[in-house]
Amino acid sequence: CIVRHYKFNVVMKNTTRLCATKPIVTINGKFPGPTLYAREGDTVLVKVVNHVKYNVSIHWHGIRQLQTGWADGPAYITQCPIQPGQNYIYNFTITGQRGTLLWHAHILWLRATVYGAIVVLPKRGVPYPFPKPHKEVVMILGEWWKSDVEAVINEATKSGFAPNVSDAHTINGYPGPLSSCSSKSSSKDGYTLKVKAGKTYMLRIINAALNEELFFKIAKHRLTVVEVDATYVKPFKTNTIVISPGQTTNVLLTADRTLGNYLVSVSPFMDSPIAVDNITATATVHYSGTLTTSPTTLITHPPQNATPVATNFTDALRSLNSKLYPANVPLTVDHSLLFTVSLGINPCLTCPNGNKVVADINNVSFVMPTTALLQAHFFNISGVFTDDFPGNPPVAFNYTGAPPTSLQTTNGTRLYRLSYNSTVQVVLQDTGIIAPENHPIHLHGFNFFVVGTGLGNYNPKKDPKKFNLVDPVERNTVGVPTGGWTAIRFRADNPGVWFMHCHLEVHTTWGLKMAFVVDNGKGPNESLLPPPRDLPTC
Ligand code: C2O
């Protein structure tokens, strides 16, 4: 068994983008942060030392954390934050997973600058289920604000209205050669992937943006999708990929041109945009032997509201479901849940959430506790949470009809309890109250199968008949379509407390989050391990 040691120093670093310099929170002074490499089966120890004035915690997004919820990272869910001057060692073993994931800060909006890639290689000697690429590279996508991110958070929380969209998107930290402030439009302003004609490259694409779903494409090249969220898929070719915050996609790029520089473009996707955002990040694919380094090709990226492009892409995703990598879809369901996912302005002026934007799941706007939920669960501390989260919407209305007059949200730290190894189906129904918008919903601690999706109201009689229980895509973050629904299934085989939330950070801030508590099983290896001794206290 191999143990890999990492040290993450949380430090401020002056960073220049868009012709302006500002101090940002980083890991080891790097933006994006360091890539964490491991193999399936390895144990990873990351010592995080907090040298900044903010509370910090780091989440290993998509790592299952079997029995080690203490290392999952969301602040106040599985741990108290690492306070200034303190440190904490995240200790986990990567079991039954290989592929690309990401790590990011998981407290307020710190993940705007504190994020990086996780590359989990297959066990030594185990090949990929596709031809070995000549080279592999990470392309991590993000957002950049000229102003201080703290100011942006305050805008969203205090005013209760949408914060400004970011000033740039980034690829490996850079807006790229076509950004408004690139002085000479030279490739120095962005990331360049150097390729040799005829070779195939694997791009590990990660969406680490705070609030934007993104399109990704490369001029005059097609991409073969082979993996999403660290699970293999049936390979398919596409011009454009769509990727939500928290998602990862591995694609093969064959350098099938002879010479030239080709633009890589990343542009926002939003089904019904409230604010226009056409900011495009770019990078360059440079063929060896080409004399210049500036991209000469033009690229047309999909319009911001190109929903059909997004739908075509997500509809094509299927689990590989091979002998070695079977899709173990739960065929029976112990807990059948219907969760409404909504966002709106509560018109009731005297209500606790009156006249500001609130977001909720099943009419509960989640309130962050001041003690970590996992500690409260493990040590039986009462008064921190209740386990009465509604399994069905308490307030019925027509999800596609006129907006209800009141959101009728309640506030609470309510969890849904699952017994060990029970099977769970959650239908996530977007209720599109003010502005219809996709919600990339992320579940910690599990991969789930996306067994069905549709527009309009979910029909519990008809829709399950069309579910794919054979080779549905398996992932940890799924986009719930605007004015539609998505059905997921998973087996509750991981004891602990597991956060589920919209991965658009602004929606999480407004309350679009909840958590499951999974009890211990009776067998060996079916219990949450005791907390590590250095677990931070609140
Ligand atoms: Cu990537 Cu709870 O988040």
UniProtKB/TrEMBL annotation:
Record key words, sorted: Apoplast, Copper, Lignin degradation, Metal-binding, Oxidoreductase, Repeat, Secreted, Signal
Entry GO terms, CC: apoplast
Catalysed reactions listed for this entry: 4 hydroquinone + O2 = 4 benzosemiquinone + 2 H2O
Plastocyanin-like domain residues: 10-123, 136-289, 389-521
Coiled coil, from the record: none
Cofactor binding note of this UniProt entry: Binds 4 Cu cations per monomer.
Enzyme kind, highest EC tier: oxidoreductase
Pfam families noted in UniProt: Cu-oxidase, Cu-oxidase_2, Cu-oxidase_3
InterPro entries tied to this protein: Cu-oxidase-like_N, Cu-oxidase_2nd, Cu-oxidase_C, Cu-oxidase_fam, Cu_oxidase_CS, Cu_oxidase_Cu_BS, Cupredoxin, CuRO_1_LCC
Gene Ontology biological process: lignin catabolic process
Cofactor: Cu cation
Protein purpose: Lignin degradation and detoxification of lignin-derived products.
Family, as annotated: Belongs to the multicopper oxidase family.
Name recorded for this polypeptide: Laccase
